[in-house]
Amino acid sequence: MNKVLIIEDEVATATPVREALALNSVEADIAKDGAEGVQMFNEGEYDLVLLDLKMPGMDGEQVLTEIRKVDPFVDVIVYTNYSEFADIKKLTNIGIQGYINKGPKGDLSELVEQILEKLAPLSEEDVNKLIKHTPEELFDE
Hints:
Elements: E1 2-7, H1 11-22, E2 26-31, H2 34-43, E3 48-51, H3 60-70, E4 75-80, H4 85-94, E5 98-101, H5 108-119, H6 124-132
Parallel strand pairs: 1-2, 1-3, 3-4, 4-5
């Protein structure tokens, strides 16, 4: 079973996401602030992090930086009302794999769909493409 860490200071926002993921057989934990999120990430094993940007104390950018020190490959999706393009571009450079608006235009089903897409294993076709484009010298090791 896949496991997601939701780092969101608004429990009323995080709870429906956790419940929607559970309906899709995805387990999710909720961290109520950035510091708790970093601690939970360091102590647990997560396949994906759903990250709010604006939180009291440690903000999303700081959390992302700490997560990347521990695991540079875990998928991180930013889920926030804040949509300043320069900040999203900066976070993309640090290493986010997606951005979803949670505001009035936010769509829970779109969010769950994006999470499920990130958690899906590679298809046989995708694996064959990767193998085809992998340099042969890497197979010799």
